[in-house]
Amino acid sequence: MKSDEAVTVSLPPDLYSRVDDRTRRTDFSTPDAYVKYVLEEVLSRVERDGAELGSAEVDEAEVQSRLRSLGYLDE
User: Is 0.90 surpassed by the pTM of this model?
Assistant: First the structure.
């Protein structure tokens, strides 16, 4: 797959609604743009932290905390 090709990812309706609501309070023009940004940020941090810790030692609690703070996991 080329790096500029897009693929479709399905979200449950309740999660999409939360993303859509959050997108409206940002400068992002679409939920797709917001989700892309959030995933890039989370993956960048996880990969960076994983490289610092050793790839087998990613802190699951930290990942969940970050996803929760972004509104992707319930409190």
Answer: no
